[in-house]
């Protein structure tokens, strides 16, 4: 399946009403926060446990008894998701809870009101409500929902929530799913892939397709991404609506979806001096230098410059130049190293036979 097909699938989703989905995004962010609050980040695929689960006794907010403002005055962050589940998609219940929470001014209640406004499909009011909160009062894992809303409504405006999220990611204060999304957005694709490997595929949402697709554009990560998606699909935990799109991502080619769009976005990242822009500049400079060394027949210098490099971080072009340089110098260890990486990325018989033949010529 070509990447154009993946792009078309993503564009179709963008064309649909997305506010209810963004409301779910808030719930996902809250769920991630609960996982973090519980301090039980277990092995990959382990179901998160929360402070409000059976492990902590009976939940305060059950589905049936009417809620009071007095109860909301003591609302805790880890209880927000429970209330969202109680309300569900019932428009009447959503409106009733919005009215009830209006008179409560503690941070968790204000945050809950913003999520309810998203579910009510009044996103600008929701963002305005989020903006009344002191960012320091919002637990790091709960910053993702307002960031997502800010990014969607005002993509060209400064996003203070993203700044806070980046700090939280760097300090290890958010769970793997949120960490993966922020890392992918910032161009830290290898780190993002590693973070996704620590998530429960059942927690993936529609917008994770964009992050996974972005990871797949890195030539050195395409094979590992396919393995990740294959394992997730085999686990049976992926939401049914994501199965087909994930298969498209796994089968798509490791190339930007649209060259002009990609160039424009990259230019914006560079001009804004974002982490993604800084990575792009460093990668471009490295590739130019590698090409110069190879064209200048400075094979030993080229190999020496990457002797400590991790193969997965390099472009396929650089890996190929290193392989050919090692063959020319008859350096067996380096020939095997870069040859194996080429085989890993390109599993077809023709490539494997060519690598094997070239490796034999270097002996």
Describe the 3D structure:
By secondary structure, the chain is mainly alpha-helical. The chain has 2 domains: 3-251; 262-361, no CATH class. It has 20 helices and no strands. It has helices spanning 3-14, 19-38, 69-72, 80-87, 91-101, 107-119, 123-131, 144-153, 160-170, 176-185, 189-196, 208-216, 222-235, 240-251, 259-271, 275-295, 299-305, 316-329, 332-345, 349-361. Helix 10 (176-185) packs antiparallel against helix 11 (189-196) and helix 12 packs parallel to helix 14 (240-251). The longest helix has 21 residues, at 275-295. It is elongated.
SS-based class:
mainly alpha
Cα distance spanning the termini: 39 Å
* Main sheet summary: none
**What is the rounded Rg?**
24 Å
Beta content comes to: under 5%
Provide the domain count: 2
- Morphology call: elongated
Give helix and strand order, one letter per element, not per position.
HHHHHHHHHHHHHHHHHHHH
Task: Tell how many strands the DSSP assignment holds.
Answer: 0
Tell me the number of helical segments per DSSP (H or I, 4 or more residues long). 20
Percent in helix = 55-70%
Low-confidence runs of at least 5 consecutive residues: 1-21, 23-57
Mean pLDDT over the residues: 78
Topology:
Layout: H1 3-14, H2 19-38, H3 69-72, H4 80-87, H5 91-101, H6 107-119, H7 123-131, H8 144-153, H9 160-170, H10 176-185, H11 189-196, H12 208-216, H13 222-235, H14 240-251, H15 259-271, H16 275-295, H17 299-305, H18 316-329, H19 332-345, H20 349-361
Helix pairs in contact: 1-14, 2-6, 2-8, 5-6, 6-7, 7-8, 8-9, 9-10, 10-11, 10-12, 11-12, 12-14, 13-14, 15-16, 16-18, 17-18, 18-19, 19-20
